[in-house]
Design goal:
Subunit structure: Monomer. Associates with the 50S ribosomal subunit.
Number of domains: 2
Structural class: alpha/beta
Strand order of the largest sheet: 6-7-5-8-9-11-10
Family: Belongs to the TRAFAC class OBG-HflX-like GTPase superfamily. HflX GTPase family.
InterPro entries: G_HFLX_dom (IPR030394), GTP-bd (IPR006073), GTP-bd_M (IPR032305), GTPase_HflX (IPR016496), GTPase_HflX_N (IPR025121), GTPase_HflX_N_sf (IPR042108), P-loop_NTPase (IPR027417)
Organism: Paraburkholderia bannensis
Order of helices and strands: EHEHEHEHHHHEHEEHHEHEHEEHH
Main location: cytoplasm
Largest sheet: 7 strands, mixed
Helix content: 40-55%
Length: about 400
């Protein structure tokens, strides 16, 4: 473990504290120990160092006093800001995007997952080559180093561009293979159900409980990166369905990752039903629901029928008694199920809900997913105001 300093600037967003707590979890997931946390308020980022020269000096002193090896920002930094901060602090500086990419690189297990992560990393790196190669902004020269007229920077850009094209080609081939598999399921009329949700909401635990699989599940961010699919028997009337466990979403998910993981996320886009797993024990569950819906909209999956699955109710006294409860919207469609994947309470209710949806047409066509503010799972939680204490 290396000591890290976490930096978060409040620009007036209401979820600042939750976002900072999430940064700490991300840092721990990447293998760092948060030893210092620096916060501040600004109306807008400083163009040169994001936090301003005064805060940068305060951060430098804190780093020296606490033996800090790396500084992690809870924001996206420009290449110039990152370079200026590293010069001022004398330490490596990474932003939120780079941190998430690093975690993905550590967790990718399948061939496809590794390809997707490498593509995302190269696309991110391509925008930062100037920072990485400022000391080589000259023609190659010297004995044995006389090149064909390219600078080191141009050479790297060309090599990275070629590698990106190669990875995109491989992922396109995998995407076609996924399409063939989906068409096979369509020919056999097998219902496809995808688990989606915020990272660490308990999707993999629920997947294992429903399928008796042994997919990796842990209480950490991004425990699952690779899509895993299993067949589940729901009785003679329904037969088998295909259930898929997908990568978790997070606020400000890097666009490079959304683009790179599009092949994996196609399982979500092509699903017949989305089970949107929500961590009922999270104090910011409503914001997390909206964040997931934003990503679903970005990948074109926002029109697929969705059922909210409130998981981890065993950790919420107000919800523990609602295990197995199935709620419906004003049209009679199943909209919410309350359960605990860990204890098994409510799993039968979820199976029955999936079976009902599989065998009956909805009373109305599903529309855009409801925003979290449009409803509340608790009787004393009528709006966002009590949720965030505003």
């Amino acid at each position: 473990m290396i000591n890290a300093a976490l930096v978060g600037i409040d620009f007036g967003k209401t979820d600042f504290e939750a976002s900072l707590e999430e940064l700490s979890l991300l840092a721990k997931s990447a293998g760092a120990t948060p030893a210092v946390t620096l916060t501040g308020r600004r109306s807008s980022p400083d163009a040169a160092m994001f936090i301003g020269s005064g805060k940068a000096e305060e951060l430098r002193l804190a780093c020296e006093a606490n033996d800090i090896e790396i500084v992690i920002f809870n924001h996206a930094l420009s290449p110039a800001q990152q370079r200026n901060l590293e010069r001022a602090l004398g330490r490596r500086v990474v932003d939120r995007t780079s941190l998430i990419l690093d975690i993905f690189a550590q967790r990718a297990r399948s061939h496809e997952g590794k390809l997707q992560v490498e593509l995302a990393q190269l696309q991110y790196l391509a925008t930062r080559l100037v920072r990485a190669w400022t000391h080589l902004e000259r023609q190659k020269g010297g004995i044995g180093l006389r090149g064909p007229g390219e600078t080191q920077l141009e050479t790297d850009r060309r090599l990275i561009g070629e590698r990106i094209k190669m990875l995109q080609g491989k992922l396109a081939k995998l995407r076609r293979q996924h399409g063939t598999q989906r068409r096979q399921r369509e020919r056999t009329r097998t219902m496809s159900v995808s688990l989606v949700g915020y990272t660490n909401a308990g999707k993999s635990t629920l997947f294992n409980a429903l399928t008796k699989a042994q997919a990796y599940a842990a209480d950490q961010l991004f425990a699952t990166l690779d899509t895993t699919s299993r067949r589940v028997w729901l009785g003679d009337e329904v037969g088998q369905i295909v259930l898929s466990d997908t990568v978790g979403f997070i606020r400000e998910l890097p666009h490079q990752l959304v683009a790179a993981f599009r092949a994996t996320l196609q399982e979500t886009v092509q699903a017949d039903l989305l089970l949107h797993v929500v961590d009922a024990s999270s104090a910011v569950r409503l914001d997390q629901i909206d964040q997931v819906n934003d990503v679903l909209h970005e990948i074109g999956a926002d029109t697929i029928r969705q059922v909210l699955v409130f998981n981890k109710i065993d950790a919420v006294p107000e919800l523990a008694a609602r295990g197995g409860t199935v709620e419906r919207d004003e049209y009679g469609n199943i909209s919410r199920v309350f359960l605990s994947a860990r204890t098994g309470v409510g799993l039968d209710a979820l199976r029955a809900a999936i079976a009902e949806i599989a065998t009956a047409e909805p009373l109305v066509e599903p529309s855009q997913p409801q925003a979290a503010a449009d409803w509340s799972p608790l009787s004393h939680e009528p709006s966002r105001e009590p949720e965030h204490g505003r």
